[in-house]
Every structure is written in C-alpha cells, then in structure tokens.
Amino acid sequence: MLVDGAPRVACVTPARRVAGRTVTTVDGLPDEERRAWGDAFCSTGASQCGFCTPGIVLRLAALRAKGSTDVDGALLAHLCRCTGWRTIGEAFEAYGVDGGPRDLEAASRRAAIEGGVPQRVAPDVALGGGGFADDTAPVDALVAVPDGRGGWAVGETLTDARQAAGKVQGRRTTAALQHTLGVPEGDWDVTLRTTWVEPAYLELDASWCAPGREPATPLANGGAFGGKVASEAPAVARRLADEHGRAVRVLLSREDTVRLGPKRAPIAAGAGADGTGVVRVARTEGLADAVRAFAPGLTVEEVDVAGPPTSSALRAAGWAEAHVLLSGATGTTRAVRSPSGAVAEAEVADDLVRVRVSCGDALDDVVLRSYCIGATHMALGWVWSEGIAVDEAGDPHDLTIRSFGILRAREMPAVEVEIDHGGGEPVNGSDAVFAAVAAAAWIGEGCAQDWPTRRNK
Ligand code: FES
pTM score, two decimals? Predict the structure, then answer.
C-alpha cells in the first residue's frame, strides 16, 4: 500500500501507525494507471497466482513516480514464489507499451498445465482479481484457526479465534539446518543430503463455507505447485459451518502453514556413474514409486524421521532428485525427460541461466516462459539457499517467509528461455526445467554434498 504516497508493506504495518494518514491500495490508483499496470504484468507474464502483485504494482508505481529504475532494490521488501522476479522487471519496462493481440484462453490453458490446477491469465489477475479463497467470505462469518493441538479454535473475529488458540508469533530461528538422514554406505561417485524445504506459497491455506453448501476452494488461481492440493481447509470449513449453523472462514497463518503444510522430503543418497545408487528418504507416500519409475537403477529406502508432513505432490518430487543424482554422478548436464514427456536442458552460471524446453504446443510463449523462469528460481533456491530448521522432536523452527531462504530479486540471474515450437500435445514443461536447472546448478557447485550449498555465505 501507499501511505501518504510512500510504499509501505501492509502485512507488517500496525493500523495505529497509519491513523490520520492517507492509505492507497491498488484499487485506489487512477483507473488508467491501474489498467496500464495490469496490462504490463499480463503481457510480460509477471504474475501467475497474482497474490504478491497488488503490492508489487504499488511499489513499482512509486518507483516510477520518483524516476528511479532500481526494480530489484525496490523488490527487497517483497516476495514472489511464482515468477522468479525477472518478468517483474520486464513489466516495469513494459508499462504503457501496447503488448499486442493475444489469445488469453490459450494462455490460461498453458498456465493450468504448468500450475497443475485451473489458472486464469488476464490483466486483472495482477491487480488482485485472481479469486482467492477468502475474497468472497461473508463479513459476519465465524473464523476458525488451528489451535495448536490438532483441533480448531473458533471465534467471532480473527483476533478472538487467535486469542482462543493462544497463537504465538513466529520468527526466524537461530537454529542451524539439520541433515537428519545419513548417506547410505557404498562406494559412490556422488553423495547428496537435502533437508526439509517449505513450498512457501504466498496465499496461505484458506476456505470458507456456509452450512450445507460447498466450501470455497484454496486452488482458485493456482495450486502452489502441489503445496495446496491436499489442503484440509475446505473440509474443515464445511464441517465447522454445519456444526455451528453459520458460515465459517478457515484461515491458516504462516506459522500454521509451516507446521501443518507439506514439505519437500529430505533425502540422503549415493549414486554411481553407472546409474545405480541408494536413495534414503523420509517416508512419504508415493515418493519411492516416483524415484523408481524415473530411475530403475536407484534403490529407495524409506525411513521414519520426526519432522513436518511431507508430500510427493510437490513439484517433480522424487524424480527431480533422481535426475540430479544421476547427472551429478556422471558430471554432465544432460537433457531430462519428465514423466509428462517434456524435455528440458539447462546451463547455469551465477549471472545467467539458459534453459531449453520442449513440451508440445506452447499455447502461449509468455506464460510458458514465465513458468520456466519461475521454475528456474525455485530450483536455484532449492540447491543454493532454501531449507527450514527442524528440531530433534520434528518441529519446524523457521516460521516466517523470510526465513525459508527464497532467492531475492537481486540474487536471481538473468534467464534465457528457448522454447521448442515443434508442436504436439501440450504437457507440463516447467517441472522438467526445474529438474534440469537443479542438476546443472549442483554440478556448478562441484556436487557439494549438502543442500542448500550457499545458505551461510
Ligand atoms: Fe507472485 Fe504468485 S505471482 S506469488
């Protein structure tokens, strides 16, 4: 938001600090300016789920008003999980430029294929029109939040519900990242240990439901790359609405989502250049099958470890790890063919990443490119900087979005995306890019055993 015309981060600004001052949200921008930003973001692929962008639009509007062009610096106060930043800089440049004709239906189809759930592409999405779960909740609905004991605290307002739950504000911990699993015995060419990784989607799990009705979906404009597909928020909203005979909103805080939401499972593995190896992994339904189907030479050992929930629904879970291991073992960045049939290759340097992707009919180059850059950002973060600290009892200690290690705009290299226009049935391409970039980034790190490789540098 703008406070007396200056950009401020709304989520950490107490209401008392803006008493008597003028607050402008994205809806308060002059019509023409708002439309121009929506068009600029849409024509460059600078928004996907569109949750982070209303704030970013205001930040860029203020930057433009003062005549500065330091977009990456201006973005330091923001986080975008989807786009990988680069297209947001392009949107800044594209402000006021006519993007030309485009088939937004085809663009939305490509976005749905990449995001895994229906996802709309249109100028209003960047302006907050994505259709988020809590947007349509009635103002007099009860509010339910996790009570920290496996149940739900319900109150007339969010403040009441949180008080009833005894919610403690999360913070970044000083505890170090742990690699709980030990590398399997063997004479390996490479070994790798990863830790729990938070999907870190921006729009937290939410839903609402009226008694006897269908609950609002948390997947209206994106499924958080698998992070929210099994969200329990809708079922809880329905149950509590029926129980209370009133509409109920279910809202998870960031801390709740870190504790209760699915993580990428940690692995410890060794592999040889002949394609054999052993992958030890925190027991996660479906993960062993995903590894074996992709790389039959790898044996999977599932281990019970204390930790937050894990999921094989997360982007490229299991097979990306397998591709990384086998690439590292031979020391070559080879093309990866994903289970969906897409093929991707990547070259990674600190200032430039080149990716090539072949995933059937592109449908819309802008959207496909945006998802490939976003996947590059997520893969680099996974290898270089992301992870959450989990204690011996299995409780996560990194409870703020700042603490997950997501690469900032300033840390994100330029990305060149080459799209194969050979045609064919369109399939998901960004997951293959994710796996290809992770493998190339790891080889670039000399196949250092422990991820993230650059966390404390
Ligand atoms: Fe930025 Fe989704 S578009 S978080």
Answer: 0.97
